[in-house]
Batch of 2 targets.
Target 1
Amino acid sequence: MAWAHDALPWLGALALALLLLLAAVYWPLRLDISARAKGEANGHFAVAGGMSLAFVSLTFVWARGIRPQLDVLLFGHKWRFRPKWRRSPRPAVEPEPESAESASSEAPRRVDPLKLLLKLVSERRHIRLRYLVLDLAYGFRDPLLTGRLVGAIYALSGILPRPIEIRQRPRWDFEDGWEVALDGRAFVKPWLVLLEMAGYVVRQLAGAGTSSPTHPSSAARLKESRS
C-alpha cells in the first residue's frame, strides 16, 4: 500500500485543481457596458463606447469621415483594429437562380444569427442583469413626428422589465438631431454561456441534417414554372 500513500498528494492536487476549475466556471464575472452616440441634421455622427469583463476590455470609436477603430485590452496588452470596408463591384452577369434541391438542402444548415442573438438575450440562468439605462434626446423639424415617437417610447417603457429603463428628453426646437447614452451592468458566467450557445448551434445543425428535403415532384414543378 505504499504506492497509495505516495499517490495521496497527487490526488489532493488533482482534487484542488478540479475545485478551482469548477469555481472558475461557475463564478459570475461583472460585465460593464457604456456607449454614447450623437447625430446632427447635416449627416455628421459620432459613436463611442466600451465594455469590460474581468481582464478583457473593448473600446470602439466611429464618426463620419473617420474609419471605425476597435481597441482590445487583454492582460495589459493592447491591440488596435481598423477594419476597411470596400464595396464589392456588381457582377456583369446576374448569377443563375439556385435550384429547389440545392436551396432546400443548404438553407436549413445555416444558423440564423437573429435567433442566436435572441437565445443569448433570453438566457437568464447564466446572465443576471443589474441595470440597463438608455437615455434618449431627440428632436425633429416636424413636431408631430416628435410627439408620436415620445408616445411610442413611453408605451415601450411600460412593458419593459424593471432592470431596463428608458429615459427620454424630447426637444421641440424644430431641428433634426439625436443623442443616445447607454449604461449597463450584469453578472455573467461566460463559460456556461459559451457552452449554451455551442449546444444551441449543434442542435440547430443536427436538426437541419435530419430535416426532410423538398419533394422531387414539387421541385420539378418549380423548375418548370421558372423556365
Target 2
Amino acid sequence: MPSIEPNHDFLGLIGIEFEEGLRLYGVTPRFWYQRYSPEAQHLEESSVRILRQKEEANFGDGEDALKEYQQVKSNIERIKVNYTEQDLLEKEDQETNSGLQEEAEPEFNYKSEEVLTSLFNLCEFYRKNQKEDLLVDSEYGSNSLPLFQYEHFVKKLEEHTRELRRTYRSVIEPVGAVRGKITTRGMMMMVARPSPRIECEFETFDIQAPLYRVMMTTLDVIRSSHLPKGFKFLDERFQQICKRGANLRMKMMEIPSFPLASALRECGKLRRRLPRMFKQFEDIVPLAEQILRAESEKQKEEESEKDSPWWHITAPSSKLWELLLEKSLENTPNYGVEKQEPLDGPWKGSGQKNIDLCITPTSTGNNGVFLVDAKYAKKPPNDVPSSVYQYQQFFYAIAWAAKGPPPSAMALAYPAPNTKEEELIPISYDLVGNISTLINKVEIPFKLWTIRFPQPEDLRTSDLSAYLSSTSKRLEYLMAENHF
C-alpha cells in the first residue's frame, strides 16, 4: 500500500490537477495538537487530503492510488529543493517523556476548509514578514503559486504609479478611432459637421524606456494568470490580485509590452545597471524578473507536459519558527533583537551559520546578551540536548566571546503543541565545565525552553496578533528567570 511521510522542512498547501479534478493537500505542522485523518474529503469543486509532518499517510490500493502517490512524492521532492538550509526534519527518540508526548486521536469529522485556511495564513505570515532582501529567492521557484509575489509587485507598483506616469502628456486632437475620451467639442462636431475623424483627449507616452515596458509585460502576465477552480477562498484572493494588476495596466494602456524573452533580457540589464532617474524602482525590478522567469518556465513545461499540472504555497518550518519568536519579541518593550552577521562554522561542510536570536535588554544599565537558538524539533524526552546541539552552542558561545564580553545566558527554544507542555519548568544546564577556562566566565546558564506553537484557533487571520502577544509574555517570563 503506497504511503507518504512528509519529513521535509516545509508546511503549507499543494494543489495537483488529476484527470478527475483538482486535489488539495495540506501539510500540517507536527506541533499542531489536533490531528486529522489523511482520508480524502470532498471540498467545493475539488477534494482534500490532510497530511502531517513526520506521520505516515496511506493512499489506499489500486492504480489511481499508486498514481497519486507517485505524483505527490515527486512534487514534495521538487519543493524540497527550494529549502536547502535544513532538508529533513530530525528523527525522533523512541522514548516518551512522562506521557506528555501522547498524541491525540485523528479527527475524521472536521472542516477541511478551516485547516487549509489556517495553513494559508501561516504561510502568509511568513511571506509578509520576510525581510525585503529575502522576498525574491529560490523559495518562489518550482511551481510555487505566485500569489504573494504578485501581490507584493502590484502593491509596490501602485505606490509608484505617479512616477511611472510622469512622462505622460495630455493630447487633444482628431483621430480616426475613439481614443481616451471624446471632448465636448468633438461630440458637438459629430452632430453639426460629421467627419471620419473625432476630436478626443488622451494621454501619450513620450519616453520609450525599457523599464516601463518591462513593468507592463509583468502586469500582462499577472492579469492573464488564473488558478484552477477548487478552493473558493484561494480563488477569490488570487482573482482580486489579478484584477488590481489589470486596473494598473488599463491606466497605462499606451505603454507597449515586450515579448517575454525580450523583457527577461531587459530585466537583466536593468538589474545590473539601473538609470539614476529610476532608482525608486530598484526593489521592483528583481520581483518583475522573478515573475517573468517563472512564466517562461511555466510555458516551457506546458509545451512538454508530462506530469499533472500542480502548484504549492509553502513556508520553511524552521525559519517560520524562528520568525515567530522574533516577532513575539518585538511586542516586548524590555527586550530587542540584535542583527547578526553570519558565522563561518568550524566543522567541515557546515557553511555559514547564524545565531537565531541575540536578545538584548533595552535598559541602559544592562549590557548583556541572551543567545537563543530556535529548534523546530521535539524537546528531548530525557531533557538532554543532542551532542550536535551542545557542540553548536559551545561554538556560538566561543564565537561571541571572541569579539567582546561572553553571553549572559543561552537557550534552545523548542515548540510545544499545547500549554501543558509549554508550562513545564525550563531545564537548566551549565556550560562552565567546558568553556570557563577559555572565555574566563564563571557561569553561563544554558536553558531548554518550550514555547507553544500557533494552533489552528490562533490562525483565523494572518497577523497572529493574539498569539504573538501571549508568546511575548512567555518569553519575558523565561528571560526574567535568569534575572536578565
